[in-house]
Amino acid sequence: ATVGQLYHEYSIEKVARIEGDAQTLKSANTYTNKQVNALEQKTNQQLQHEATARIEGDAQTLKSANTYTNKQVNALEQKNNQQLQHEATARIEG
């Protein structure tokens, strides 16, 4: 092989290596982008699920707290009304 032939083969190999590296990089980037997008989508779904569960849980907690408070207020109101009625009766009967 002459120097010219060796230089020509070297040039062909160099171009092939550069093109191969470019294809490998493109393939790696495509794979990485797909993985990142899948992870982002999964994370967004999980966050949405958590937010929905939290909102529903907060609503249930608030409903329970309101029910408890209303029962306590009603019981206190009934007790006060009974005491006032008893006091009024005692004053009238005096």
From TrEMBL:
It comes from the Bacteria. Gene3D superfamilies: 1.20.5.2280. This is Uncharacterized protein.
